Amino acid sequence: MKETLINLKNQAIAQIGDTSTQEELETIRQEMFGRSGKITKITRELKNVNKEERKEIGILLNDIKNTLQNVISTKSNNLKNSTRTWFDVTIPGKKPKIGHLHLVTQAIDEISKTFENVGFVRARYPEVEWDWFAFESLNMPSDHAARDEWETFFVDTPKHPKFGSMVLTPHTSSGQVREMMRVGSPPIRMINIAKCYRRQIDVSHYPMFHQFEGLVIDKGISIVNLKGTLDYFAKNFFGENRKTRLRPYNFQFTEPSFEVDISCDICSGNGCKLCKEGWLELGGAGMVHPDVLKAGKIDPKVYTGFAFGWGVERTFMMKAGLNIPDIRLMYSSDLRILTQY
Length: 341
Ligand code: FA5
Hints:
Layout: H1 2-18, H2 22-33, H3 38-45, H4 51-85, H5 103-116, E1 121-123, E2 128-130, H6 131-134, E3 154-160, E4 164-168, H7 175-183, E5 188-197, E6 208-218, H8 223-238, E7 244-251, E8 254-263, E9 279-288, H9 290-295, E10 304-311, H10 312-317, H11 335-338
Helix pairs in contact: 1-4
The structure holds adenosine-5'-[phenylalaninyl-phosphate] (FA5).
């Protein structure tokens, strides 16, 4: 009897393990515990077992009942859970939204390609920079009033004996002398595109923005080369019909210095709400000051050079048809704006 019961238990456990639906499981439950189920019958017949064995068989039978009920209930839960995680692999998936490069990254790529096409080499210099590279080597000693225009962020670190304080670089011109030191002897054709920082924020100013700085140094470089480069860039970046003009200006590190304007695309130079008499301001430029060449250990009697530095965001905003009215929108995380460009 004992052996029959143990065999019955093992057989039932194996059958329960093989079931794959609740219906199959229910059939086994009925076969065991239904009115004429095997366990029910044995329970009924227990009274016919002789007295000596009855107690022992009774305990075994109870044990088997509990075991089988537990196994059935565990299997039933497993079947329910596996039904829940089942999914139809033939249903078409949801397409994830695909983003694109940020508009400033797109502008940087386009600007660097435009200059690389005519032999400029892309350079990168530290964003956290010594005062000497950002100002002093560019002909702006620490007490010079022109420094105020840069509204610099200073970093709270001990001063370097030669290079002074640390600053968040306020313009890419801080890469000029670094490039001269890196290359050593001209020719130099650098395009330095990097983040700049100033304590400014309004419609056309942002505390973190990008500039691109061109620097060309060689024998016999003149304003004609500067103007030719500016026109090349204007036509390639803004369109065939765009022109540039130079207005006299003052920067400590260039002599002579200019502000560069580009002809307005909306009124074709006739004057409109967006521009000043047909021209839009692009940024600064000029012939590299002899003192700056000297700071970079280049002989100003042998070499001359030009430099220009403009804001990436502002230049991009001037592209025809973009209509970006506020520089701050370019750094908002609003996808309704970002997905338009
Ligand atoms: C300079 O920074 C000079 N280093 C440019 C230069 C380079 C002159 C080489 C001569 C030779 P300026 O401060 O004007 O110049 O800035 C140049 C351009 O950077 C501006 O015309 C503007 O386009 C952009 N810019 C300046 N400040 C901000 C700002 N806070 N947010 C966004 N763009 C800015």
